[in-house]
Write a structure and sequence with these properties.
Blueprint lengths: L5 H4 L5 E7 H16 L4 E7 L8 H13 L7 E6 L1 H13 L5 E6 L2 H7 L4 E6 L2 E8 L4 E2 L11 H18 L1 H6 L6 H21 L14 H10 L6 H12 L4 H10 L13 H9 L8 E9 L2 E8 L8
Parallel strand pairs: 1-2, 1-3, 3-4, 4-7
Antiparallel strand pairs: 5-6, 8-9
Helix pairs in contact: 3-4, 5-6, 5-8, 6-8, 6-10, 6-11, 9-10, 9-12
This protein binds nicotinamide-adenine-dinucleotide.
The site of nicotinamide-adenine-dinucleotide (NAD) has 29 residues, from α2, α4, α5, β6 and α6.
């Protein structure tokens, strides 16, 4: 699917709001807006500042007010052009405006292509925590175009690779093999499609994250704590990769793949002296239940299990 086909998804729409961030707008905004408008639909662009700080209730209010000022109706729709920040924020605004209008995701980061645009989780951060306010709202379509990745900085690519490796470890030894060399060009496009397909299957089976979807937390339980303790100096993908490494000690080829991509360790990030803070942070994880935390633990590539671990025993993993 291409942007010029979006209006066909919403036959009663008279206008679309194209929400993007300042970086993506500068690099790709004009072209994408032109392509959407080539089908004859009016498209108004709303640009938010790039960065996680934009995923806020203030920007949610700003977006829905803009939709109202544009006199958008239930039949109109939102197009989110950007990474996970734009997708989560614009999707949440679409889920709440008039109790929910349609939206389309055009992910422009690798992470958004293989992860955040899929599954219908939308939301914003509040000072008390990330993603604490949100809704499940599925996009009408997700338009993946790896051409956007040509302008994506290396550190953002790494965030996506961490998620792709995670998906391969969870579900697909063949994809894991294919990703042993860092993919590029058509190999990357094929790996992106495969990851997206695998994540879509899991969330379709388990929309509200009760069972199988929990597997997608591989690396995230330790990863979130590492991110927090480093005060977000360790980027998300790097933190997930460290988390994966911690729970994958029995499967050395996973550590070897993370090495090959250049992902670091607690030691290389200068965090080896802060293990007690990492454990403390995990004890407060919102996904904890009672006195234990569910870890996703690989037994082999393609064979990962959920394991309930008492908080008092988490230290043995580090
Ligand atoms: N909804 C979900 O299921 C889900 C899943 C995972 C992550 N997330 C959320 O996703 C967010 C992270 O997403 P992200 O990593 O895409 O970050 P992001 O949206 O902040 O994008 C990262 C940076 O890359 C820039 N950028 C985006 N596309 C570009 C391109 N093609 N060329 C050049 N620069 C480009 C952005 O302007 C930004 O500076 C977090 O808020 C996280 O909570 C949501």
């Amino acid at each position: 699917m291409t942007p010029s086909e979006i209006s066909g998804l919403f036959p009663k729409a008279s206008k679309l709001a194209l929400v993007t961030d300042s970086n993506v707008d500068r690099l790709h905004g004009d072209r994408v807006a032109r392509e959407i408008e080539s089908s004859g639909i009016r498209t108004d662009r709303i640009v938010i500042p790039a960065g996680e700080a934009s995923k806020s209730l203030e920007n949610h209010a700003r977006l829905v007010s803009s939709f109202a000022a544009l006199e958008m109706t239930r039949s109109d729709a939102v197009v989110a052009l950007g990474g996970g920040v734009v997708g989560d924020l614009a999707g949440f605004a679409a889920s709440t405006y008039m109790r929910g209008i349609g939206f389309v995701q055009i992910p422009t980061t690798l992470l958004a292509m293989v992860d955040s645009s899929i599954g219908g989780k939308t939301g914003v951060d509040i000072p008390e925590g990330k993603n604490l306010v949100g809704a499940f709202h599925l996009p009408a379509a997700i338009i993946r175009d790896c051409g956007f990745l040509e302008t994506l900085p290396e550190k953002e690519l790494m965030n996506g690779y961490a998620e792709m490796i995670k998906t391969a470890v969870l579900f697909d030894p063949e994809l894991f093999e294919a990703m042993k060399c860092r993919p590029a060009g058509s190999t990357l496009a094929a790996a992106v499609e495969r990851c997206a397909e695998l994540k879509s299957q899991v969330v379709a089976d388990d929309f509200r994250e009760s069972g199988r979807r929990m597997l997608l937390n591989l690396g995230h339980t330790f990863g979130h704590a590492i991110e927090k303790v480093s005060e977000f100096a360790v980027p998300h993908g790097e933190a997930v990769a460290m988390g994966m490494r911690i729970v994958s000690k029995d499967v050395p080829e996973i550590g070897a793949m993370l090495d090959a991509y250049g992902f670091g360790t607690l030691e290389s990030a200068g965090l080896s002296g802060r293990k007690s803070e990492i454990l403390e942070s995990m004890a407060h994880d919102k996904k904890r239940s009672g006195d234990s935390v569910t870890l996703i633990v690989p037994r082999a590539v393609g064979d990962c299990r959920m394991m309930s671990v008492p908080i008092s025993e988490l230290g043995e993993w580090l």
